[in-house]
Amino acid sequence: MPEQLLFTKILNAAFAGPITSLLRALHIEPQFPQAPITNAIAMEVLVVGFLVLVFILVRSRLSVESPSGLQHVFEGLNGFIEGQSRDIVGHHSERFTPFLTTMGLFILVCNLLGLVPGLESPTASPVVPLGCALCAFIYYQAHGFSHAGPRYVLHFLGPPMEGMHVIGRFLMAILMLPIELISHLARVMSLTIRLYANIFAGDMVTLVFFSLIPIGVPVIFLGLHLGVALLQAFIFVLLTTVYLAGAVGEEH
User: Fold this and answer.
1) Is residue 183 a contact partner of residue 91, using CB atoms and an 8 Å limit?
2) If DSSP codes are grouped into helix, strand and coil, which group holds residue 163?
3) How many CB atoms within 10 Å of residue 13?
4) In the chain, which ranges are continuous DSSP H helix?
5) Res 252 pLDDT > 50
6) pTM score, two decimals?
7) Percent of the chain, pLDDT > 70?
8) Strand, helix or coil for residue 188
9) What is the rounded distance in angstroms from the CA atom of residue 240 to the CA atom of residue 238?
10) What are the DSSP calls for 60-98, one per residue?
11) What is the C-alpha to C-alpha distance for residues 1 and 33, in angstroms, rounded to an integer?
């Protein structure tokens, strides 16, 4: 059985039985029936719980006349993502802001969790970045179909080829279809590997230097890890916004 963090042990002690029964009902046999909840899943639960509490706190103290510092932070973050979406997607991008902001905050807190002693970054496990990438993929594809309807399929057949003979257009579409499908699926792999590799490497470097030189020097790498965590959350949101722009754009 792999080593469990304290919070993981608490969750497994409380919910191992029901979760194992549920998995078996779905014909999924857990590798460790006594501990079906992994550290990555436990850390995700912790992040979601933390964010929900923060959102409730901000919502309960919203004020126009005397906004709190936390409200200013969230308004600034929301405004930044909304402005970035408007620049990339267009003036109809406001409906994407809640998803992009929530995704960015979730990834950022997951990235930073490894800086807390006794915890680890769930994004240092490949399953979590993959889940985030799949959410982004499904989200922008769903909005593509919602925006263009069945015509969205034409997006996978390459750019418009006006003036080309119908046979040439047909052959070009056959050529472009697998290329476009592979390129869209590659986006999932790209988002996953970029986030996972950077956070995993940051955690390992910080851990190594804490083991070798526990005083002074690791602070530098903690600062670097903080920068990487912020940058990777920003890049993930930015790329998702770019994919949304391609899905709901008018050119196809």
Assistant:
1) no
2) coil
3) 13
4) 6-25, 39-60, 69-88, 97-112, 127-148, 166-212, 217-248
5) no
6) 0.89
7) 92
8) helix
9) 5
10) HT--SSS--HHHHHHHHHHHHHHHHHHHHT-TTGGGGHH
11) 10
Q: CA-to-CA distance for 52 and 105, rounded, in angstroms?
A: 11
**Conformation bin of residue 186: beta by default, left when phi > 0, alpha when psi is -120 to 50:** alpha
Distance (Å, whole) CA 18 – CA 5: 20
Q: Give the model confidence (pLDDT) of 102-147 as tens digits.
A: 999 999 999 999 888 888 999 999 999 999 999 999 999 999 998 8
> Residue 82: which residues within 8 A CB-CB, separation 6 or more?
93, 94, 97
- 189-215 confidence digits (pLDDT tens): 999 999 999 999 888 887 777 777 766
Instruction: Decide: 237 and 195 in contact? Cβ < 8 Å.
Output: no
Residue count of the chain: 252
What tens digit of pLDDT does each residue of 44-97 get?
999 999 999 999 998 888 888 888 888 889 999 999 999 999 999 988 888 999
Fill in the amino acid letter for 236.
F
- Residue pair 134/188 in contact by the 8 Å Cβ criterion: yes
